[in-house]
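Input.
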Amino acid sequence: MPKVKIPRKSTAIDMTAMCDVAFLLLSFFILATKQKPPEVLSVTPPESVSSKAAPDKSILITLTKDGKAFLMLGDDTKKEDILKDINTTKGLNLSAGELAKWKKQGFIGLPLNQIKSSLALSTEIPAAQMPGIPTDSTNNEMSDWLRSITNAYKGTAQNKLQEMLLVKGDNSVLYPAFKNIKQAFKKNEIYKFRIVTNGEAVPVGSELYNSQPK
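Output.
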């Protein structure tokens, strides 16, 4: 008796559930990924063998190769308090609306006496066209900013604030510009801060290399 042949059918796989899982994972990674904060202007910092990561919410002072100083207030939870403090202590007379607009800006690179007029503009001034925060010996406004920062973080452990304070200077910036930043820290009794560098491998045979666990 002949065998009954069962007709073969192509296997169909429903990919709907798999697509749903893929999109859920994609959405999760997009939302959970920590984005690199935007740079004010491109600078080339010096190299070092340190590999310690900078904190997520950092306060970054950037020094360009021509000595311009910019400030980024990365901690949004304190940014409003810092802006309100310097508005009061330096008599900028900014309204609540102007402070709200100022808070949305990613960085600060203007003298204090130009802030109010810049907020009246319809578009934000590009960083390349900003003169930077004055840091010379006769008018070091970075010390005013650091004073408002310390006021906003009053009650916070000093070592925690020091870990958030970063200085990123171009490799070709002249020392006097960096010295003025150090004076601004010193004037506010801040004696420790971190310098942003480009990481490089530890030289083979050096003391640091030999001290590392093998």
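Residues 32-37 have pLDDT under 50 and may be disordered.
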